[in-house]
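Need the bound structure for S-adenosyl-L-homocysteine, inputs here:
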Amino acid sequence: MSETSEKINLLGLSPSKMEAFFAELGEKKFRAQQMLKWIHQFGEADFEKMTNMGKGLRAKLAEISEIRLPEVVYEDISADGTRKWVMRMPGGSSIETVYIPEKDRGTLCVSSQIGCSLDCSFCSTGKQGFNRDLTVAEIIGQVYVAAMSFHAPGERRERKITNVVMMGMGEPLLNFDNVVDAMQLMMDDNAYGLSKRRVTISTSGVVPMLDKLGDVIDVSLAVSLHAPNDALRDQLVPLNRKYPIKELIAATNRYLNKLADRRKATIEYTMIENVNDSLEHAQELSELMKQVPCKINLIPFNPFPNSGYKRPSNNRVYRFRDYLLSQNHIVTIRSTRGDDIDAACGQLVGRVDDRTRRSAKYINAVQLDSNQ
Ligand code: SAH
Ligand code: SF4
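Answer from helper R.:
Posting the output first, comments after.
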């Protein structure tokens, strides 16, 4: 289908919007459930093959709607099982999606925007600026592509993806409605059926939107803190000047209190050498983290050209972690999986405006693939 198609893309309809769509056609609720299953569980994009829908309905659907999938321009599997996809968006920019397998789970890292407006000083997405929000179809399309990569077309998919984290490109709370609809699909039993504990939204701290989020959906929360005081956080995460740490922690607690069960927030702390990785920072962080039920995830900084920052030595990371552990915090260090395809989550590069910026590496890779 052309990018300018005016047909409704059913890939991007949340469960309630799918029901409304079929209701308008005079069809019952179960049709919406059937359609969700065809698309998200069987990967079927051809209405003619949807044999449990009547002939007349199939013809009507083909006339007014379509199932338009993202265009995958690059796919790679690294030695450790990590997978990466680059998807080209209408307009030419591209986004990245990464799948990271672990012993007991498989995590997909999903993007919410092309670029990001918040300009955190250590983030390559932020350095590229903001291009646009992704649509619901483009967000859930990343899950679709990853899920379908594990099975043959038309077969019911296997449950390889157990967790989704909104930690790719972009600030998900600034693309609120589309991200909420996509997460509804991730959790719907007729689509991906993920548990609410295993769908995580990551935010750098858009406080009003965090309050709104708790009113409409129940998903797990990761907060990108990165600094234990406002002076430092103002430099690393400019949004902090608008919503300082105290307000962010209060909003995090309000959010956790709205959840149906007792759940901790994940506090993300990207460690940058000689910037936020000293023992004094660990002490300050430890005091702060007593104010919120949380697990602390330390992310060694992932260097990129001209960032001006360095990744701390392992010893410095362990020293920081050990101090927090000694204060009875729950602490993990994010392992840098998939380094051979530079794919680990939270360090996605993506390309904003492909004509000027898409790297030769991708173009070569695509050509190589098609020669095989
Ligand atoms: N905008 C959201 C989600 C996307 S970023 C947010 O900021 O939370 C996902 C995570 O990766 C964030 O915790 C972010 O701070 C981290 N991150 C960004 N750039 C990084 C880098 N160069 N090295 C390590 N972690 C990085
Ligand atoms: Fe945006 Fe998150 Fe990167 Fe900050 S860390 S610039 S909020 S994507």
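Comments: The two ends are 26 Å apart (CA to CA). Residues 122-124, 167, 171, 202-204, 224, 268, 270, 299, 301-302, 346-347 surround S-adenosyl-L-homocysteine (ligand 1) (CB under 6 Å).
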